[in-house]
Structure formats: structure tokens, C-alpha cells
Amino acid sequence: MASPEPCTTSGPCKKTVAIVGAGAAGALVAIQLCETAARRRIPFDLLLIDPAPEAGRGTAYSTLDPRHRLNVPAGKMSCYPDDPGHFVRWLCHHGEPGVRGGDFAERYRYGAYLADTLGRAIMAAQGVVGVRRLRTRATGCHWTTQPGGDPSARLELADGGTVEAHHVVLATGPSRATAEWAPADLRGSDRFIADPWAPGALDAALGQGHKEDVLLVGTGLTSVDIAMTLDRPGRTVHTVSRGGRLPQPHAVDPLPAAACTTPLPGLSLAALRAEVRQHIGRVMRTHGDWRPAVDGLRPVTAEIWASMSTAERAEFMARDGSLWNTHRHRMPPATAESVGRMRRTRRMRTYQGRLASASARPDGSLTVSLATADGPRTLPVGWVVDCTGPGLRLSGTADPLWRSLLDQGAAVPGPLSMGVATDHGRLRGADGGATRPLWTLGAPRRGELWETTAIPEIREQAAAIAEAVLDPWTAPALPADGGRAPRRARRPMDTSGFPLSTHAAAATAYRLGVDRLLKVRAGAPQALRRSVALDPGFALGHAALALIGHECGADVDVSRALADARRAVRERADDYERSFVDVVSRRVLRSPADGDAALLRHLEEYPGDALALAVAVPTIAFSGLRDLDGTTALRVVERTAQAHGGRWFHTSLLAFMRQEQGRYDEAGTLAERALAAEPASGHAMHALAHVYYERGDHEAGRERLERWLAHQGRGGTHRAHFSWHAALHELALEDTAAVRRRWAEQLSPGKVHGVRALVDSGSLLWRARLVGAWQGPFPIGDVLDSAPAAVLERPATAFVALHAAIALTAAGDLAGLRRLRVHALRADEVQRSVIAPLCTAFEDILEERWAEAARGLERLLPRLPGVGGSAAQREIVEETLLFALVSAGHRDAARDRLEERLDRRSSPHDRRRLTALSS
Fold first, then answer.
1. Is the N end or the C end of the chain the one with fewer CB atoms within 10 Å?
2. Kind plus residue range of the DSSP H or E element containing 355
3. CA pair distance 172, 440, nearest whole angstrom
4. String of b and e for 437-446 (b: at least 16 CB within 10 Å)?
5. In the chain, what is the greatest distance between 2 CA atoms, to the nearest angstrom?
């Protein structure tokens, strides 16, 4: 094969990156390379070199035994450092909908996740990254430098071929065990299993009729997994190691990590031991568990290791390493339970010591002699299995690739001869420098980092390698002082006239998506998805998707979209784009108050941003500002008026604000003006619907809504909400047949899904039942079935939480209400102060404690505006209060409330109820 084209400053050339090893570490690097290159539009060729049939699994995640589980909770096993819930969400979408972050998934499932995520990353990078998979091993690596060019590598392959690359990443995983501990006679026996993870290695021991005892040398996590696989009635699994310790179990209900208050790096080993013991003692006294103390050391483990001298590291390995490993690398609770059961029934026995000798018996089995702490012991066993785990030292490796690098001085052993020496993952050569574009991660860095074999560490290293490889090939980012692109690259504009850091096709799709959001029309998610498919590095496209997923219930992986937005905005964005992504980040990740403050700052700086204004003003779709006094959103609309120059969208929002103020004539005029300019404006029609309702003009309001829904509203994304408005008029008119008909045709599950089913369909059913307008079978169960469980139990916003509480109350789901209350108490301030006590009041309703319910609801009414939404939507709490008052026998209080409401607007139904209460 010809050498790669040398790159010069006169023009770009296509580079090649080779990843040797396609297990977990190699897959994580490939994912980061593909996704980063797609965002930055950096073309290169990627070679994945590994003989395994499927990328992503490696040795660790190829096991088919369902008893083999990850020893790290699923919530910490994401591929992405900045998106920790990614693996949990993947499990939820792939057959395990109830999984939580603290669960321990099957290892095979994690291999499937890695393979699937890698496949998606490769597909997303099509047209930018050319990927080739070579099903063979790399056996040698030699470096050359072209005149005037960069170093390049020639990789020799086991199949006789060669490939060339500009960068090489050695993702080879842990070294294979050498079984040096085993007597020569044992190593030559066919009853010795040197690699239990090799395909078919355990078949003979698992064969029919074989019940002989087995000896596992090693008592770590590998030994635990193999013991469970080989366990069967009538067999004893013996395990032996120098320490004789099995891994400790994870807690069933884990506590948060507790950081050590004393700085540990730089202490002598003796002082370090003393401080760690004191730290564990403090945590034990506070929490009753040592695990948070050990977990709290994890962030500083590498720093502590780096501060040790060579002698201290060696002493730690000899005296403390085993004890640390058994407490640091723990068994999942289910695994610990299985192992405990095996030990209690004597099907598993553990010894502290070593295997001294082994000899063959006439039937082919073995007699092994153990030198244990309790004296010599002789055991008849069918097999001896090497479970000592991977080798630590590469210096004596038989791997031909690493051997060639060590022999030619391209790599040198790391501290204590463990792994290799690197400069932040870039291999150091015999000359002490890291001049070759040759990288490694994971186990080969153990000598430098000690803790480097778990996914949380490896994914950080993978991201760092991708950055280091691609940074020199990345075009300069936009300047931070105004965001102007180079003159030769004129930037397209968004709907509001702000320049976008993307190309014309992606900008067109983005404008279409925003336009549909502003008009409250269907198709916004599809258009926004197309914008980021055309340009994966387009920050505003990802941010808008995260926003509508979080606030509008769109089918979007919010965490993933937000992570993509934050990555992209660091690489290519101006001040306006950075500000908008910050707004979305704070609304999704932080408290409502923090998100509101960021949104207000953004609109102060960019008052003409129509999408941000739509987010701020709670007319429909978005939850809006947390407007406790009812004036913040109005001030924002009035302050931004000049920037919008009387255009239809701003006029629509102003119409909605005027009706909230009770200025219905002005609101109606503004809404009609906006509709004349843009007949499809959902915001304007929404304002007009409220005007008709609050005026008590129910016949005309229903007729106007029907006409709009039949024509301009046909493509509306919130048709159900306009149907809900029409149904309110029908309830006020006591036209119960029309309410039932509208439910069946426009609001029943199947017609409405997700959050809208809760907000519109569920609330209408409860309101109809409260006022006696719904008789017969009550289909609230269908509404609950159509809403995702996470929306009912863990709603992201107080507005959605309010309607989840209503639907659960309508269904009589007392347990569901209590779960929602627990969530609200752990959520943002509005959910804590409004939703949690609301759930308590609704519990009182279900248990017919009418007076207590009425008192609780009465106290909450003044705080309801902070939940968001409109007064008409929040009125359902007042309807529930009226029902509780009447049920408690407090007719005078109920009559006073109805009289106050009739003073505001006419309602035949309220008038009849008042008459009934007065009789």
C-alpha cells in the first residue's frame, strides 16, 4: 500500500486513523472520533482492526451468561462523559423500560449498547468519515517520516497485509494472563483452562455428566463470574488467592460518595494510610457504611498515585493493593447474593494461599495441593481455571504488536513496568519524548494512573484522544468578540435575522422548524432533526430539539440533544448562539429560577429573538417564565416590542398578555390584527379563545374555534388544546352531548398522545366529572396508558406535574400521587412548594377528607401562577376546591366563590350551580 499523502500548508489532505482493538476502549475512541469529525466536518478515514466478529464487545462484554453483570451501576456506564444517562435511556428503549441508574445491567447488554452506539456514530458521520473494519490482528508497527511531512505508521497484519495511518490508537485492553504462577505440569494439562473467556474454554467443564469439583486460582471479579457459570448441584467450586478475599458487595440502596476533607496527594504512604482510615471512620460514624468513603476517593486516586514515589507504589501494591481492589471493585448485589448462597451451601469455598502442585489422576482429573494459611490442603478437582485476571506488565508480553513497539523504542514500560509510559495517552519513546502520533488508553496506562480500567475513566481518555487527534485538523472557530465569520463565508440567517454558524441547507431546515414552532404548527421536530442531520455540529439545532423535548413533550432524547448542543457550541458558535444554548442548558439542567434569569439576560441582549420570546411567554407549548406576580412575562413582551416592529408574532403574544390583564377588548383587537397578517398563528387564535371564554361569549367562541380548526388550524401541533378550549365553552353551556362527541372525535387517546393527553384530555375528563357532565364509564385509564411513565412519576416541569397530579387523582391512583409527591419534594422549588402540597390535597380528596382538602387547595390558589400555563388551565384547581367545599358541607364558601367568578364572566352552568346552592 502506498504511503499516506503528506500534508503541507498549501492545502488539506485526507488523513487516516487506525484503531487497533475494537472492544470497549476502541469503540469509545471510534465513537468520539466519528461524532467530533461529523460536528467539525473533518474528513478522514478510520480503520478498525480487530478479529472479533462484532465491534464493541471485546472480551469483557462477549459473555452470554445472564448472571454476569456489570460491577458498575448503569447510571455510570454511559459512552459519553457529558451525558451520564445515555446507557440507561438506551436500556429503556431496548426492552427494559423500568431500569434505573442504580441497576446493574447484564454485561452482554452493555456490549450490545457499545456496538449499537458505535454503529449510530458511524452512520451519522457518513460522507465525512470513511470507516473500514479489518477482521484481523495487528502484529507490528513501524514509523516513517516523509520529506517535509508528518510521521506515518505502517501496520503489519496477521493476514499478511499492511495498512498505513497518520495516527494509531492502541486500544488493546488488558494484557493476557501469562499463568507464570502455574507449575509446568499443570500448564501442559488439558484440564488447565488458561483463559476462561476464550470461546468454548469452559465447554468441557460444563458438559453433560461432568460434576467434578473445580479450582479457580484468583478470587476477584473474574473468579466470581466463572464460579457462577460453573456452579451446579453436587459440585464444589474452590477458589484460592494470596489474599483469600472475595470482592465486597455493592450496597442495595447506595449512598452518595463522601469526599475526604483532607488533601491526600503528596502525603507519605504511612500518612496516607492513616488519613484514609480516619476518613473511612468518619464516614462510618456518619452514614454507617464504608462505601461512600471509598467512592469519595475515586476522583483523586490518580492524583494520589502520581504523587507517590516508585518505592511507595511498590509497597502499596504489595501491602494494600489486594485490600483496595476488593473494596473498590465490588460485586453487584444480585451477584453477591448468588455467591453468598453458594458459600452457605458449601458449593463455593475460598482459601488464602497458593497452588503448590498439581498431578494427573488415572481418570484424567487432577489432584492439587494448596499451601494455605491454615496449612496444606489436597483437593481432587476436574479442572483448574486461571482467574488471576490480566497481566500488569507489558515488558514481558508475547503480543507481537506491543513487542515490536518495545523492541524498536517506540514504547517504553511505565512505572513499576506496568503498562507503558505516556504523555496524556500519547506514547513516550526510548528517547523520553512523545513525538509519534501513537496513542493508548485504558489498561496500558495503569502504571501511570493505577485506576484506569473502568468505563468512567476510559470514556474520558477516549474523548481526550479524539480531541488531540482532530484539533490540528480543525478549521479556526468563529471569533468570540462578535461572531463575524470570514468575509468569504457569508453566514445564513435565522427567522429573527441572527446569523447562524452552519451552512445554507441546515439553516433552511432550522428556519422551517422555528417557523412551525412560532405558528404552533406540526412538523417542527422533523425540520429540526433534519437541520442537525445535515450539520451535526449545528449547536442551535440541537438546542432547539432539547428545548421542545423538555418543555413540549416532543419525542426527543433531551439529554443527548443538549449534550450535542453544548459540544457543538464550544467548537463553532458566536455570542448569540452561546447565550441561547446556555438558556436551554439552564432550563433543562437547573432550577426554573436559574433558567428564567438566563432567559431574561438573553432577551435583554437579543430582544429580537422570536424563539426565545416564545419560550419566555407562556401562551401555549412552552412553560414560560416562572411568573409569580403575573407581570414578568408582560414586561418582557412590552420591552421587546420595538425590536419586533409590530410583526404578527409579537402582536400575538401581546394579545395573550392583554387578556391575562383582563383587557379583553384590546386583546381581541390585537389577536384579530395578528390573524389578518398570519391566519395560521396559533398564538393569536389561542389569545382569542381566551378572550371569548373570559367574556362569557361561549356560543361565539365555540363557533370561531370550530371554523379555525377546520381551516387554518388543520396543521396545528396543539389542535387538542384548541379542542379543549371549545369543550370548555360546551361545559359552560351545559351541552354534555357535545362534550362527549368532542372527546370521542378529538381528545380521546389515539387522537392525542403523551403530554397533551395529560394536559388537555385528562384535565377535561376530571373537570367534566367534577361538574357532573360525565356519566358512565370513565376512560381516564386510557389517558394514563398513553402518557409515558416518566411523565407521570418524574415530570420535568411544574406545569406537567400539575396535570399528572390531576390525571392520577381522576384515576383514583393514591399510590401514584404519593410517588409524584416524593418526586416533587426532590425537584425544583416550584414543584416543592406547589406540586407536593397539591398532591397532599388531592390525596385528601381521594380519601374523602373534604375539609382538609379544601383548606389545602385554598392555600395553594395564590401560588398557582408560578406553575405556568393560563388562568383557564389553572382554574381546574378551583373547580376541585368547589367540589371539596360542597362535599364538606361548606355551601356558603362555595357560593361566594361562584359569585366571584360570575362577576368576572357569564356561565349558564355556574349560574345554575349558584341557584342550586342558594336553595
1. C
2. strand 348-360
3. 8
4. bbbbbbbbbb
5. 103
Query: Is 49 strand, coil or helix?
Result: strand
* Residue 95 zone, left/alpha/beta (φ > 0; ψ -120 to 50; rest): left
662 Cβ contact list (under 8 Å, min separation 6): 694
Whether the Cβ atoms of residue 128 and residue 37 lie closer than 8 Å to each other? yes
- Encode burial over 660-684: b for 16+ CB neighbours within 10 A, e otherwise: beeebeebbebbebbbeebebbbbb
Dist. CA 426–CA 62, nearest whole Å: 28
Angle at 801 between CA 797 and CA 806, to 5 degrees: 155
In the beta sheet, which residues pair with residue 192?
384
Q: Beta strands 167-170 and 15-20: pairing type?
A: parallel
Summarize pLDDT for 118-159 with one digit per residue, the tens. 999 999 999 999 999 999 999 999 988 766 667 889 999 999
C-alpha cell at 546: 432539547
Task: DSSP letter for 350, please.
Answer: E
For residue 487, the tally of other CB atoms under 10 A from its CB is 6
pLDDT at 630 over 70: no
Residue 253 CB-density burial (10 A; 0-12 exposed, 13-18 middle, 19+ buried): exposed
Q: CA separation (Å) from 30 to 26, 70, 133, 203, 279?
A: 6, 22, 11, 33, 39
Instruction: Say which residue the cell 399510590 belongs to.
Output: 815
pLDDT at 4: 41
pLDDT tens digits for 832-890? 999 999 999 999 999 999 999 999 999 999 999 888 778 888 899 999 999 999 999 99
Strand 348-360 relative to strand 366-372, pairing: antiparallel
- Predicted confidence (pLDDT) at residue 488 exceeds the cutoff of 50: no
Inter-axis angle of helices 871-887 and 798-810, nearest 10: 40
What one-letter code names the amino acid at 407? D
Q: Is the pLDDT of residue 2 over 60?
A: no
Containing 857, the helix (H) or strand (E) segment is helix 850-860
Q: What is the pLDDT of residues 444-471, one digit of tens each?
A: 999 999 988 899 999 999 999 999 999 9
For 422-567, where are the E strands, in sequence order? 422-423, 426-427, 438-440
Q: What is the pTM of this model?
A: 0.82
Which is it for strands 366-372 and 375-381: parallel, antiparallel or unpaired?
A: antiparallel
* Residue 250: φ, ψ to 5°: -70, 155
pLDDT digits (tens, 9 = 90+) for 53-87: 899 998 889 999 999 999 999 999 999 999 999 99
CB 387 within 8 A of CB 226: yes
> What's the pLDDT score for residue 24?
95
Helix 539-552 with 558-571: angle, nearest 10 deg: 150
What distance, in Å, lies between the first and last C-alpha atoms of the chain?
98
305: number of Cβ within 10 Å: 20
Are 581 and 539 within 8 A, CB to CB? yes
Q: What are 693-718's pLDDT values in tens digits?
A: 999 999 999 999 999 988 887 777 77
pLDDT at 786: 86
> What is the arithmetic mean of pLDDT over 367-389?
93
The number of beta carbons lying within 10 Å of the beta carbon of residue 535 is 25
**What is the rounded distance in angstroms from the CA atom of residue 252 to the CA atom of residue 521?**
47
Q: Residues 814-818: contacts with CB within 8 Å, 24+ apart? A: 814/843, 814/846, 814/847, 816/792, 817/842, 817/843, 817/846, 818/843
Contact 612, 599 (CB under 8 A): yes
Distances (CA, A) of 99 to 62, 67, 74, 787, 789: 21, 17, 9, 18, 12
In this predicted structure, the answer to whether residue 479 has a pLDDT above a threshold of 50 is: no
Q: Which residues contact 555 (CB under 8 A, 6 or more apart)?
A: 525, 549, 754
